[in-house]
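User: For a benchmark we're assembling, each entry needs the component sequences followed by a predicted structure for the full assembly. Here are entry 17's components. Please fill in the structure.
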Amino acid sequence: AQKITQTQPGMFVQEKEAVTLDCTYDTSDQSYGLFWYKQPSSGEMIFLIYQGSYDEQNATEGRYSLNFQKARKSANLVISASQLGDSAMYFCAMRVEAGSYQLTFGKGTKLSVIP
Amino acid sequence: KAGVTQTPRYLIKTRGQQVTLSCSPISGHRSVSWYQQTPGQGLQFLFEYFSETQRNKGNFPGRFSGRQFSNSRSEMNVSTLELGDSALYLCASSLSRERNTEAFFGQGTRLTVV
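Assistant: Structure for entry 17:
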């Protein structure tokens, strides 16, 4: 079975500062994908970034980057230059089976950006 | 390009009733999956449909069922509603079932059972 752990229920960051959201995972599979989603108060889950287990380089998408440390089984999300609109819940998720689109989610981290 | 559309957005039902939720995926997407989100349990996988066939099912009772139509639209049904079924139900669609394919989510249907 797969498990995602997000140990930070809530985080505060000053506007324009960088912030790191932690995510550790547990799986016995060698091939898997890691995802980060943002969920504003409206409820929609917004895809941010993806990292494959065999990807040698850390993924980046604009202000988002994923600090992937395979040996430590961690996939931390780094948001640079935080904006007020970044205030939301952030979920780390994992998918292991190539034949099934099932995501296993962590409990999430609530990020609040302070002006 | 239209995103994933879920209807209705909000729903209030009474215990014992049944409910049907609808999800229209992004055009061209054939995989549709459903998730239940509650404050206590977080996001939990319900089931996934691909080409009108259920491919995978989460650990939910048989009261939860679904189907997918030939145009990839999907419906989820919950029978004999319980108070604990109150949740945000999210639908996601993806272009393929490859591991690196992201899922795009709708805004969800917020179900309240009273």
